Amino acid sequence: MEMSTLELLLEFLKVLPINIIIIILSAALGLLFAILLTFLRIKKIPVISQMADLYVSFARSVPGLILLFIAYFGIPKILSLMGFNSVDVSPMHAAIISMGFYHSGYISEVFRPAYLSVDKSQHEAADSLGYTPTKKFFRIILPQVIPVALPGYGNGLVYLIHDTSLIFAIGVIDIMGVAELFISRSYGTNQVFIYFVIALMFSAMCFTADFLIKKLEKKTSFR
Amino acid sequence: MGKRLISFTLCIFVLIFLVACSNDDKTKAESDGDKNVRIIKVATGHTSKPLSWIDKDGEVTGYEPEIIKELDKVIDGYKFELVAVEDSAGETGLATGKYDMLAGGLGFTEERAEQYIIPSESNGRALIKIYVGKDSGIEGIEDLVGKNISPLSPAGATLKTVKDWEAEHPEHKLKYDLADVGIPMADRLKEISNGKYDALFYPSSYGQIKIIEDQKLAVRATDPIKIIPTFFMIHKSEENEKLKEAIDEGLKKLKDSGKLSELSVEFYDEDVFQYDK
Amino acid sequence: MFDLKASYDMFLGILGLLPKTLLLAVTILILSTLLGIVIAIIQQYKIPVLIQLIGLFKLFLRGTPMVVFLYLMYYALPAMGQLIISLLGINYNMNNMSPVIILIVTVSLTLSAFQSEIIRGAFLAVDYGQIEAAHSLGYSFYQTFTRIIVPQAFVHAVPDFANSFTVAIKATSLGFLITVIDIFAKAKIMAAQNFRFVEAFLMVALIYWGAGILITKIADRYENDVRIK
Asked: CATH topology for C18-180?
């Protein structure tokens, strides 16, 4: 048991970068799209705003596994029907695309209400002081939006971390994959133990994310 | 701030591109080899020991993957590449053409024949057995009326076998739930051993013999209630018709030479062909 | 490759389980929100001892993927239940604990850790000037909380609650591991019968999407009605 526990931990450390790469890239991609989506939904531009609505409800309500399958199996299929035959999507790409997609839908619904929570008088005050729209946004509005949005954003980030475990379904061995492989090699006799270790590993990752969010929160809050 | 946002965006796309390149290098190097050899992507399970799993060294192995490796030796013009994925991903990818072939111990059904090319030669036998307590005296399905049956998985032939039996024997009514695969075999057998359930229907290819021995469980298997020949499934396309013929030829050779029985004993601890008449 | 007739049958078959799925999700949302409010209040007012306990509780619940937690609860919950009722002197075999209950408890506990964060954020969104104004008008602490803070915080939390609701709907699909059948489970069962996985997954995605649109619409309407313009 001692020996295999050590082996398990070594395997976990070996594949940890895969989880981290997916988390960072899909979080960044998601953040970018979420900002765009929030902008579109707040501006209420006809048609485009409705499309953004549909995007958001699709991204956040369809299970991660199906999004992953659509990215991995669906995109090449659609491209080949359109005549691009040799395009293939790697599992890593499919993971980053589908999780970034989900993440953008989730957190845009955090940003939008956070933006709307800023008191209207603040907009008016900034306007009367002669601020340009950009200046108003970055100097007055954004500093008030961030602390309100951070707890919800932290939730989104933690869900994203959880979802990385899905990638094992299409054959990329991440930390969840290592756990499942160890379990299957022993026919599941050590599943409770390994699942405890996995719970600790994921808790550590989420703790790190929460810690960073808390730090940002302290930095940006006024109270 | 605006500039920072733009440079941030650029950074992400560069990074994603880099991840792309690091992945592509490998496949390109492989395909540069021999132009006359077609690479066949074979999807198989990654956590279904001993049917197919990934061993300590990261190698895909198991009864079905080892047959594929043997086929690689006896068939010319093809090179087989094993991809270990989840079962539902395997079936989805086979339908869309991401994978050319699926090795998952699957039986012949009309619905499958409609969607996939199925070789004429089978690669093994799925033996559906009932796992019961050692002293329970249960010998067949008919003894299970009123008993507590462990949840059945809808995937695979087990559920169909039970349903067919129920249709033939309407006077007997069985009570059971459906559940996803995921509770490991060792736990399911333990639930038989400790009496939570009276019986478990399962194909015998999940390492039951080893688990019962290692864990010293008071569980035994009945004789197979159903014997189902299993096949590789091939993605439906014109060029794959030739692949099917090659697979048929290769499997025939392996069966005649006794290689399939040998692999069966190695992975399942019994020759699955022994129940053939 | 794509079979329309099969897709249509599947769509109807899966749709039949939508009410059950939504009912499960609503139950989970209500339970987790109640628990989340308790957690948020403990954190907001820094109640000693409890706040340390809550910290650990949240760390574990937020960190552990729900599949893992469900598996652990599948064994732990009946055992814990057995311990409690045997202490109470009741003779009942907890091994027969309904999987629906195990699922609801597991997902509600996990979600409560997320709900507490949303509620905390919602409190932060209430303008501090309003609280001061209430105090200066002679409102008591309790009055300020129930009349000023909660109504405003709730408005802010609605879109986030909609997010949580979609999470709850998706989380019910884990229940199939322990025999609870929801829309995703139904899709898997139907796909296993005729091997049309592509169709099944697309149809269930459509249904999830439809539910998602409905939730977004309802939340938006509510928000528009109550948000002060």
From this structure: MetI-like fold (1.10.3720)
